[in-house]
Amino acid sequence: MTLARRLDGLPLALATAGMYLNQTADSFSDYLRLYNDSWNDLGLYSDGPLDYKDQTLYSTWNLSLQRVRSQDPGAAELLRLMAFLDNQDLWYELFQAGAKDRALWWLEAVKSKARFNRAMSKLYDYSLVEIRAGSYSLHACVHDWTLECLNRDLDNEIYEIAVHCIAKSVKRKREQEYWVTNRRLFPHMHRLEHNRAKGWIDWSSLDMTDLHSIGYLCSQLDMKAAAEEMYVRALRGKEKAWGPEHLSTLATINNLGLLYANQGKMTEAEEMYVRALRGKEKAWGPEHTSTLGTLNNLGLLYANQGKMAEAEEMYVRALRALRGYKKAWGPEHSSTLDTVHNLGNLYANQGKMTEAEEMYVRALRGYEKAWGPEHTSTLDTVNNLGLLYADQGKMTEAEEMYVRALRGKEKAWGPEHTSTLDTVNNLGLLYADQGKMAEAEEMYVRALRGKEKAWGPEHTSTLDTVNNLGNLYANQSKMAEAEEMYVRALRGKEKAWGPEHTSTLDTVNNLGNFYANQGKMTEAEEMYVRAFRGKEKAWGSEHTSTLGTVNNLGNLYANQGKMTEAEEMYVRALRGYEKAWGPEHTSTLNTVNNLGLLYANQSKMAEAEEMYVRALQGYEKAMGMNHPSTRRIARNLNALRVK
Q: What pLDDT is recorded for position 56?
């Protein structure tokens, strides 16, 4: 069955395989291995059945090609070229995109759609290509023959044209429905990568501009390793040819920064961004749109690292520069909208919910007007609005945003793209917060399977979802399953990031919570202390992530009856949060509430009431009267006053 699928049901190919197996002691699996690994030898030494005017399967195609070449040499070369592309969905514009400054036969073959169709018709006459609606295709066996036989001696020019066709067809994010073409290019990119991995082609001779475009395409299609290789090769070539400060060099440096940031390689990402920013400021000046793009990227990076002051500096600087362009561009220019969107991210991280929502809504309206409701930039903002509403406890609005983002991303990228899966994961978080455990698990499992397929089981994005499943199982009191997820996430992150990386330490902190909930106080304290020391070393003693673990240590000590130690932790966390987030941030208020609980347990009623009132007023302002946290604090205050 496997062999039949590989031969795609071609009758003559199946008959040839049967004849070969009758003449040898080989098994079906042996033949399949020979077909995949030694195709040319298999064709040379097989006595296949006579057909097609007494010719074997392999010589029939050779004879047909000879006839095509005698009648239309360009058509024969086109067939050789198709070996380096996927065998499905071959359309004129793909071939025509790479026509400039190429071989004369190539320019002739694609000079018009009519000429191209005539060449393809000639191949169709000899059953070498098939006609599909709007495109052409090759049978899988014919496709194998074009690579193994027609390109036995590699012609660099042929495969460079194939790469050039793909590179010149790539659409950028600022183009309408860019994802449609880029997804269409995916099978062809996958074929190139397959050929490279097999050692059949060499990337070293390729044009560096093409390499940059291929790197961009790979990053769009979740082919991160290939994207990095392409960008690095392109960068080396550009540095050598044009110098380290050429604008094209800087563009590749900036894109490498984006790729590293997506991979979680924060140090490398910052190095790339800073280098790109300095070069662009020198070449273009501080207010050029390209400079502003890198400013925004640095801002995002700093925000993800918890460096809020540095992030805000980047965004404010970008906005200041944009003010001079508003008259020319208007408030809905893409550079303006990107900065507005990123400011929304910053305000959300700072707990400035009103300001964050204002930025997101402004960006969303602008993107919808500029790009349409289904553009991926629009959908990213929709997703972030979902995150904001979820943090505010506006569950209905959050779900509406997530569902809209999910449907749009499924349509644009497909159900298994990592951008789609990020929104699936967010829906899981929402359902978990709503107590919809079955729905949450369904989302997490879908996200996990997709990420395992796209990234692999040990990728950090995969492990984040594993960690979320651990949280879900812990909340369901499925302790064995929860611990399995946490331990898997921890081991994977230790391997990927090292034992002291902040992502690793987040899972260590979660294990502390897990053990604390089980009453395993010794193990919980061990985890918290490890997380605290690691975060203090990585982030500093006043970073909000460090303070989160300090707050957890306070909870642990309070549960152990160590009131002095608990108060010390809470006060430290509170001072740090007030400095980092301000007195009205929800993280600050959560620690205020914890102090209220501690004082109430110590019968310090006045101090407890002061904390509860402060926390309640803050939550009412930030989240509203009906938020679960607001209601919980109100219950604490009422219970205290009853006493």
A: 53
Query: Nearest CA to 104 among 147, 149, 161, 152?
Result: 161
Q: What is the pLDDT of residues 41-83, one digit of tens each?
A: 444 444 443 343 334 556 667 767 888 888 999 999 999 999 8
Q: Three-state secondary structure along 602-631?
A: CCCHHHHHHHHHHHHHHHHHHCCCCCHHHH
What SS3 class is residue 91? Answer: coil
| 519 φ/ψ angles, rounded to the nearest 5 degrees | 80, 10
Query: What is the C-alpha separation between 546 and 572, in angstroms, rounded?
Result: 11
Distance CA 150, CA 80 (A): 6
Give how far Cα 404 sits from Cα of 217, 228, 423, 438, Å.
Answer: 25, 31, 10, 21
Helical spans, DSSP H, in 497-539: 502-517, 521-539
pLDDT of residue 514: 92
How many CB atoms within 10 Å of residue 104?
8
What gap in Å lies between CA 283 and CA 190, rounded to an integer?
36
φ and ψ at 622, to 5 degrees? -80, -40
Please state the rounded mean pLDDT for residues 426-444. 91
What's the CA gap between 171 and 628, in Å, rounded?
45
**The total number of residues written for the chain in this structure:** 643
Each residue of 442-464: pLDDT tens digit? 999 999 999 888 778 887 788 88
Q: For residue 55, what are the β-bridge partners?
A: 51
Q: Residue 222 carries which side chain, given as an amino acid letter? A: D
> What residues contact residue 333 under an 8 Å CB cut-off, 6+ apart?
325, 326
Cα separation, 583 vs 615, whole angstroms: 10
> What does the pLDDT read at residue 59?
60
- 206 closest CA partner among 168, 249, 159: 159
Contact criterion met (CB below 8 Å) for 299 and 341 = no
Residue 184 has pLDDT above 80, yes or no: yes
Furthest C-alpha separation in the chain: 102
Asked if pLDDT for residue 595 goes beyond 90, the answer is yes
Which residues does 638 contact at the CB level (< 8 Å), separation at least 6?
Answer: none
Structural contact between residues 340 and 366, judged by C-beta atoms closer than 8 angstroms: yes
| H-assigned helices in 49-112 | 57-71, 73-82, 92-96, 104-109
Distance CA 417, CA 411 (A): 11
Phi, psi angles (nearest 5°) of residue 635? -65, -40
First to last CA, the chain: 76
pLDDT(105) > 80: yes
Angle between helices 178-197 and 156-169 (to 10 degrees): 150
CA gap 617, 200 in Å, rounded: 68
Residue type, 416: E
Sign of the CA dihedral with 41 first, then 44, 50, and 51 last: positive
Q: What is the DSSP letter of 130?
A: E
Confidence category of residue 21, pLDDT binned at 50, 70, 90: very low
Q: Are 563 and 602 in contact (CB under 8 A)?
A: yes
Give the tens place of pLDDT for each residue, 285-312: 877 777 878 888 888 888 776 676 788 7
Q: What is the pLDDT of the chain when averaged over all its residues?
A: 82
